[in-house]
Amino acid sequence: MRFKNILGFKGRILRIYGSMIDLIVVFLIMVMLITLGVALFSVLVDLYDALRNLRHEIAIQTLVESILSVFVLIELFRSFTDYLEFHRLRLRVISEVAIVFVLRDVFIGLYSHSLEWRDILALSLLIAVLVGTRVASLFFPPPQE
């Protein structure tokens, strides 16, 4: 645990604080697992609906959105488990989650033909900044404890 070297009352309070944070993160991971299960069930329902209605573009678009949403949930789940393991949020993981989230919106917008050129330009710029952040996090890692 990260607070074990501190002695006395302050150390006990900090150890309790660390334990409570770990407990909250474990609870959030359980919630994420349930959410991931529900999302997977939703994808299966959308797949069944899309296979029944192959002519309806809305059913196929809903399936694509559901699948991309599951990928976003998986990336969020990874950031929670990384926090539990390392006791910090890693910029690399957070930037990857953001990239997947933005790419999801780009794919949905492109698939539904609802993006204008300004939206595409803005989202492309945002993706470029996020990729730059991710690359910078690889070149400039945080100092080791």
TrEMBL record:
<keyword id="KW-1133">Transmembrane helix</keyword>
<feature type="transmembrane region" description="Helical">
    <location>
        <begin position="89"/>
        <end position="108"/>
    </location>
</feature>
<feature type="transmembrane region" description="Helical">
    <location>
        <begin position="120"/>
        <end position="140"/>
    </location>
</feature>
<dbReference type="Pfam" id="PF06146">
    <property type="entry name" value="PsiE"/>
</dbReference>
<feature type="transmembrane region" description="Helical">
    <location>
        <begin position="21"/>
        <end position="43"/>
    </location>
</feature>
<keyword id="KW-0812">Transmembrane</keyword>
<keyword id="KW-0472">Membrane</keyword>
<keyword id="KW-1003">Cell membrane</keyword>
<dbReference type="InterPro" id="IPR020948">
    <property type="entry name" value="P_starv_induced_PsiE-like"/>
</dbReference>
<protein>
    <recommendedName>
        <fullName>Phosphate-starvation-inducible E</fullName>
    </recommendedName>
</protein>
<feature type="transmembrane region" description="Helical">
    <location>
        <begin position="58"/>
        <end position="77"/>
    </location>
</feature>
<dbReference type="GO" id="GO:0005886">
    <property type="term" value="C:plasma membrane"/>
</dbReference>
